[in-house]
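Now produce a polypeptide, keeping tokens residue-aligned:
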Amino acid sequence: MNITRFAARDGLRLAYRETADTGRPLILLHGFAGGSSLWTEHGIADAIAEHGIRVIMPDFRGHGDSPRPHDPAAYPPDILADDGLALIDHLGFNDHEYDLAGYSLGGRIVARMLARGATPRRAIIAGQGLAKVTGPQGGGDNHRLLTALVNGTEFAPDSPEAKTAYWIKKLGADPQALLHVLASLVPTREADLRRITTETLVAIGQEDERADADQLAALLPHAQYIRVPGNHGTAIATPEFSAAIAKFLAA
């Protein structure tokens, strides 16, 4: 699948892939440390596209095939939402001419884009709960682990840290760039969530530790809530997840 580039508002040339140039467009945002290639490698994009949907999959800055600058100035607050809004402008979509979805970090950015005025016909926030959307954004285990990787810290074999570090390296992610991404994230206030009028699907794995996804759905005025098989890492690749997206968008 070919990579296309567009100019972010600061001029950085960001990457995206798409399944076709026809069909109703769905902008699909990936999770932290991943990239758009994960949607294609696991067959998720094709499973959604089979329903006549044009799936557009950007790589966040600091991720995938997009640039990964190490200058903190390239990651001002809320830059991932800025980049998403710039992609909509680049594609020339008007109000309700597209749909918007994201998983994990991508779900947080969907919430940010909606709060800042994005106007998709429908939206999907998946693999995400209320605390992660509204609470502190840049710290926690990911920050500690990435800092350790940047500093060359060794982890005990078979420890949770070692397993996560292996996953990050396998993805080819850049720990320094990801630290800057974390520092740029902005919470979405509950009051802003209550003002979102877009019909939204909140989807979560049955074994996902983000057990407050139902609370997130309850704050959104026009939300549906579903659970699919799997945990945070596996739910995204289940047939039920792709089917739920396609069904919601077709309704």
